[in-house]
User: What shape does this take?
Amino acid sequence: SFLGEPVSSLAMAYGTSLASQGRDIMDRNIDRLVPVGRLKYYFAVDTVYVGRKLGLLVFPFMHQDWQVRYQQDAPVAPRFDVNAPDLYIPVMAFITYILVAGLALGTQNRFSPDSLGLQASSALAWLIVEVLAILLSLYLVTVNTDLTTIDLVAFSGYKYVGMIVGLVSGLLFGKTGYYMVLGWCCISIFVFMIRTLRLKILSEAAAEGVLVRGAKNQLRMYLTMAIAAVQPLFMYWLTYHLIR
Assistant: This one.
């Protein structure tokens, strides 16, 4: 008993030390694979930001300042800057899109778990393909940009807001309402993407004070327009079959 207590205390301390080291190693590996700290930035939103961002996505024409604000060489959190990309709206919009798609299928007696799963997996697959295609295009055009993969996921996910508005309009007012509202949302997302991405993709030339001329800068302009133009195509492709 006299020797047992020190031994048990030593064993407990050793076990606690091992557990702490194991937790630190796990945290480092998880952070290497999934940048949890970085992801927190994209979910740092509040109600005011969400409302302003949704308004900007649907009506971007009067917005003047599209520059992302920085503080100490780091972008400020989305809740302080409506121009900052976030993941909260794209994630919530994607989930809502799947739910509205299920509602649309249900009103047409076409709903089934398999059809809803196919809708979700198809939308997710197209999103992944789109982001990978943009990354490849940026690499081929040799664009030096501060756009990250998470930024591209965020920007590509904003289209679901317009898709939801179009689908709800179609459910309430039929095909006419669907085409009118979706058309407006398609124009809005095109303008939003052009004005946002041109500051990112053309930032190198702008920083150097170089006019957008020459083959390389023209490729950047074409890439910016292509990324913006593909958004309405996906919006129509992923919704038209849900309205009858």
